[in-house]
Amino acid sequence: MRPDTPADHIAEAERLERTAGLYPEDAEQLLLQAAAHLELAGERDRATTLYDRLLSPEAPHPASAPILIRALKASNLWEYGHEAEARAIIDGVRAAAPRDPAPWVIVAESLESHDELTQAQETFTEAVERLLTETDINDPSYEKRPLLFGRHRVRRLLGAEHDSWDALADRVSTAPVPLDELHDPKRIWSLGSQDPAELRAEISRIQAELGSYREALSRPFPVAILHWPSTELEELLTAYPSLESEYPSHEAHLSTIESSLRELAASGTPNLGIVTGTVPSYEAFAASEGSTPADVSLLPQYATTLAARGRAVGWPPRGDEGCWCGSGTTYSECHGTDQT
Question: What is the architecture of the domain spanning 65-217?
Answer without folding.
Answer: Alpha Horseshoe (1.25)
